[in-house]
């Protein structure tokens, strides 16, 4: 098993360090969950260029050839989840979700509804709600979106590296596969993002 150094960087011959301070936004006090993303870029380099220019990012990037690059410290927060989270109760249970405040929010128009749901959910503790930026880390897999519902497939090398990386994180953070989410499960995204990612 590999380990993290004092700066929150994973020390292993399998992991390159290329830290972008622009995408780190204050201290990350606790890590409860992991969110898996796809970059909507065709190469790791295109994502590095965006990070260097100050875009939002995540803690790890997995290139198409399976290379793992750590782009932010796990002690720092990245804005990878987005501002408005979905209701875990509503997404999992549908009509059987007995949260009265959520039921009220679902009667609102779309823009007001997703804002109200986010506010209700943020008062809950994980795992009653989905992860947020202040209690999760993100893994980006390089891949472009194809249309409004799909992304390009992941390579076998990317899937192998994702599993290896998750195994390191499970051990270090005392988490398991129940704490790993695809980005569109958690917030309002192209449903194809990371749709073809698999892990144990
Ligand atoms: Zn994402």
From TrEMBL:
<dbReference type="InterPro" id="IPR002502">
    <property type="entry name" value="Amidase_domain"/>
</dbReference>
<dbReference type="InterPro" id="IPR051206">
    <property type="entry name" value="NAMLAA_amidase_2"/>
</dbReference>
<dbReference type="Pfam" id="PF01510">
    <property type="entry name" value="Amidase_2"/>
</dbReference>
<keyword id="KW-0961">Cell wall biogenesis/degradation</keyword>
<protein>
    <recommendedName>
        <fullName>N-acetylmuramoyl-L-alanine amidase</fullName>
        <ecNumber>3.5.1.28</ecNumber>
    </recommendedName>
</protein>
<dbReference type="GO" id="GO:0009253">
    <property type="term" value="P:peptidoglycan catabolic process"/>
</dbReference>
<dbReference type="InterPro" id="IPR036505">
    <property type="entry name" value="Amidase/PGRP_sf"/>
</dbReference>
<dbReference type="GO" id="GO:0008745">
    <property type="term" value="F:N-acetylmuramoyl-L-alanine amidase activity"/>
</dbReference>
<keyword id="KW-0378">Hydrolase</keyword>
<dbReference type="GO" id="GO:0009254">
    <property type="term" value="P:peptidoglycan turnover"/>
</dbReference>
<dbReference type="GO" id="GO:0071555">
    <property type="term" value="P:cell wall organization"/>
</dbReference>
<feature type="domain" description="N-acetylmuramoyl-L-alanine amidase">
    <location>
        <begin position="20"/>
        <end position="192"/>
    </location>
</feature>
């Amino acid at each position: 098993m590999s380990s993290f150094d004092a700066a929150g960087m994973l020390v292993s011959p399998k992991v390159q360090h290329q830290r972008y301070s622009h995408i780190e936004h204050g201290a990350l006090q606790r890590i409860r969950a992991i969110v898996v993303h796809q970059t909507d870029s065709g190469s790791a380099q295109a994502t590095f260029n965006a990070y260097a220019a100050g875009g939002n990012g995540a803690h790890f990037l997995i290139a198409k050839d399976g290379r793992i690059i750590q782009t932010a410290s796990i002690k720092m927060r990245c804005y990878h989840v987005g501002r408005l989270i979905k209701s875990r109760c509503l997404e999992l249970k549908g009509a059987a979700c007995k949260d009265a405040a959520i039921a009220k929010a679902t009667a609102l128009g779309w823009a007001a509804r997703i804002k109200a749901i986010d506010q209700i959910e943020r008062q809950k503790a994980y795992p009653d709600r989905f992860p947020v930026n202040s209690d999760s880390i993100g893994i980006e897999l390089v891949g472009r979106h194809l249309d409004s519902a799909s992304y390009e497939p992941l390579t076998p090398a990317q899937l192998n590296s994702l599993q290896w990386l998750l195994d390191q994180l499970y051990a270090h953070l005392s988490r398991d596969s129940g704490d790993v989410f695809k980005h569109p499960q958690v917030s309002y995204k192209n449903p194809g993002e990371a749709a073809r990612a698999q892990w144990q």
